[in-house]
């Protein structure tokens, strides 16, 4: 007979469907709730009482519940060590990507620093450019974007001058990106904006790996794109960018 102790590890979040799939019926769930062996984190979502939840508990629990989800964008870049180029001193919400619609409770669960479910996804459903990072006592695997993918994810959402300046500072520290992986990712990406802006940032940074990217194999679309209003048009990638970066005169924004 299935029991709570044999099926549910501390730190995991599950719903009634998951518990029922392991032989724990609703009446038994209700008993565990009354007895304090199980607690409701949010309506319909349960855990064993224990230490405060970490955001990684939530992400791994989503995979346990059958969701295809990974940590990307600025969160992945922070994990890979690029956060010191930002110097923002503020807590960034955890950026999650999924080809599925994630449950509403993800953004309401109250686990700090909170979650942002990314609506713009610059890649089709490909697994390229990701890695698994073990978390917790049981080394639960959390999927993260590698820096190459995370930079393109970041470029897909940039809308302001300040965001471009911050991305430019991070790109200056990205001397070790792998052009072979970037080539695959750029050829696979469906976001014209992300590809053009990433390549512009890469060219501006002047790293050696940029010269190994074959632009002729990347679909960059046609026509001009305005990234920031009042910017200067880059004649190669046909995007408007902050004049001070385009002309090589960026000053500190901090």
Automatic annotation (TrEMBL):
<feature type="domain" description="Transcriptional regulator AbiEi antitoxin N-terminal">
    <location>
        <begin position="4"/>
        <end position="88"/>
    </location>
</feature>
<dbReference type="InterPro" id="IPR033455">
    <property type="entry name" value="AbiEi_3_N"/>
</dbReference>
<dbReference type="Pfam" id="PF11459">
    <property type="entry name" value="AbiEi_3"/>
</dbReference>
<dbReference type="Pfam" id="PF17194">
    <property type="entry name" value="AbiEi_3_N"/>
</dbReference>
<protein>
    <recommendedName>
        <fullName>Transcriptional regulator AbiEi antitoxin N-terminal domain-containing protein</fullName>
    </recommendedName>
</protein>
<dbReference type="InterPro" id="IPR021561">
    <property type="entry name" value="AbiEi_3"/>
</dbReference>
């Amino acid at each position: 007979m299935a029991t709570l102790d044999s099926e549910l590890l501390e730190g995991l979040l599950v719903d009634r469907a998951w518990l029922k799939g392991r032989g724990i019926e609703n009446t038994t769930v209700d008993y565990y709730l009354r007895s304090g062996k199980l607690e409701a984190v949010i309506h319909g979502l349960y855990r064993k009482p224990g230490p405060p939840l970490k955001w990684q508990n939530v992400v791994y629990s989503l995979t346990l519940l059958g969701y295809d989800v990974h940590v990307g964008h600025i969160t992945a870049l922070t994990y890979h060590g690029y956060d010191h180029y930002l110097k923002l001193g503020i807590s960034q919400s955890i950026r999650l990507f999924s080809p599925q619609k994630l449950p509403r409770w993800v953004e309401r669960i109250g686990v700090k620093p909170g979650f942002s479910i990314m609506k713009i996804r610059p890649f089709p459903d490909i697994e390229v450019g990701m890695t698994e990072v073990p978390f917790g006592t049981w080394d639960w695997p959390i999927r993260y974007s590698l820096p190459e993918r995370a930079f393109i994810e970041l470029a897909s959402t940039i809308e302001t001058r300040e965001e471009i300046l911050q991305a430019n500072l991070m790109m200056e520290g990205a001397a070790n990106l792998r052009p072979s992986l970037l080539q695959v990712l750029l050829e696979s990406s469906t976001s014209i904006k992300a590809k053009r802006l990433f390549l512009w940032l890469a060219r501006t940074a002047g790293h050696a790996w940029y010269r190994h990217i074959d632009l002729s194999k990347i679909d960059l679309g046609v026509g001009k794109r305005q990234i920031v209003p009042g910017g200067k048009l880059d004649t190669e990638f046909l995007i408007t960018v902050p004049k001070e970066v385009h002309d090589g005169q960026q000053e500190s924004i901090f």
